[in-house]
């Protein structure tokens, strides 16, 4: 097994989600901070 170091930390964000019946609720989404920065660019 090789050694790996994690450089990015997971980040929790809350997003509003609307279901098929039109109800809105909040859901937690976990992602890696580096991936968020790459998507925003």
Description:
With 41 residues, this protein is an alpha+beta fold. It is built from one helix and two strands; from the N terminus they run ββα. The mean pLDDT is 79.
Low-confidence stretches: none
Separation, N- and C-terminal Cα atoms: 34 Å
Q: Strand order, biggest sheet?
A: 1-2
Strand content: 35-45%
For the largest beta-sheet, the strand count, sense and barrel status come to: 2 strands, antiparallel
The chain-level structural class is: alpha+beta
Strand runs, count: 2
The geometry reads as rod-shaped
Helix content: 10-25%
| Mean of residue pLDDT values | 79
The helix tally amounts to 1
Radius of gyration: 15 Å
Give the topology string: H per helix, E per strand. EEH
Layout of helices and strands:
Layout: E1 10-18, E2 24-32, H1 33-40
Antiparallel strand pairs: 1-2
């Amino acid at each position: 097994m090789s050694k790996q170091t994690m450089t990015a930390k997971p980040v929790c964000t809350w997003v509003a989600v609307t279901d098929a019946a039109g109800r809105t609720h909040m859901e937690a989404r976990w992602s890696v901070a580096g991936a968020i920065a790459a998507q925003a660019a």
